[in-house]
Specification:
It is an enzyme of class 4 (lyase). The protein is an alpha/beta fold. About 40% of the residues lie in helices and about 15% in strands. A seven-stranded mixed β-sheet has the order 1-7-6-5-4-2-3, sandwiched between helices. A five-stranded mixed β-sheet has the order 8-9-12-11-10, with helices on one face. It is globular. It binds pyridoxal-5'-phosphate.
Length: about 400
Amino acid sequence: MSETYTRASELLYHGHSAKGQDYNYPASFPLFTNTSFTMNSLAQVREAYRSKFTYVRTNNPNREALADMVSYFENGEKSLICSSGMAAITTTLMTVLKPGDHIICNSFIYGETFDVMTKLMRKFGVESDLVSFDDMDQVRAAVKPNTKLIYSEVCANPTMNIADIPTLAEIAHKNGAYLMIDNTFTTAVSIRPLDLGADIVISSMTKFMNGHSNAISGSITASAQIIDAIHPIRMLCGTPGDPYAAWTIATNMQTVFLRVKKQMANAAQLAAALEKNPHVSKVNHPSLESFPQHELALKLFAGNDAMTGMMSFIVPEDMEKIDQFMERLHFARYATTLGGIHTTLNHPVTSSHSHMPDADRRKMGITPGMFRLSVGIEEPEDLIKDFYQALEVFDK
Ligand SMILES: Cc1ncc(COP(=O)(O)O)c(C=O)c1O
């Protein structure tokens, strides 16, 4: 990370090498709020358009510094920073697909990505099929001659089903398609999809990558060829990220390894403890032996403590007691986001999955007793004690 950060810092000095001036550099990365950079001659204008900074929607030092950090993080060739995770997804799809193309998408997917696949893309003549990626034969059977893209999250919201990235890459590449992976719930601290064969990795940086619930942004990492094709589309769509968000996230990204390692370890510990509580009928976390894809998880991730800071669990469907349970929690607060340093919880049936018929939700394992948890960096013993005392409301 430090090597990239130095390289990113050098970007600021328009060619002045950090080695040429060994003191008086800002100790932290400055924020460039300017919308434009000045030039003194047409020769300089031509040079600036080729290789320097011009206008904020085209390029900006804070975005480029962050993009450099993300390329290092994901072990990819090149990255782009967008205004949100959704901007990263739609801008990429607008670039790599055309009318008549076909996408195969995991049916266990973030609600708004589901809408992009089933509404937005179809409006522009792109076909999509949503199938369960728990079964690779369903993915193979969905392939058509015009399949150009296979899409999945590493870990699905809120049931945590995981994607077999190496097998998906094999299926995609055999058929001349790209594999695009959303790494939001896991991050490159846990898994690097590009190393496992994916062609494009995107993340909502709004979540774990930033970790402080105070900025919105998205990243795309891929080969230089793919990224260079997305760059002009991002300019036309107006989806490059704002410099202040890029500056905030670049600052917070410096602690991403410390934070996310602790969040993943806490989640594994909390999941194991909740599974033993008599009021919890089910816990979904890939570290648990009861998780249907536990063996696949052990193949994809470095260990039980290195999978994801996300999990879900199911309590009795007594809405009055569920409210009392939430009120009794001291650490976990309800929030419509995830990945921050504080533990937050969310109720899929009244939020992300509220538009779905109950029977369909139940088929996916989502019941009114389900909570999704994003585990923070608190001491795990405190979290376990707190959940246990709050769960006592179901005693009577
Ligand atoms: C898995 C996943 N992907 C993408 C997004 C979209 O990110 P953003 O809100 O930054 O647009 C979200 C948002 O919650 C998400 O959970």
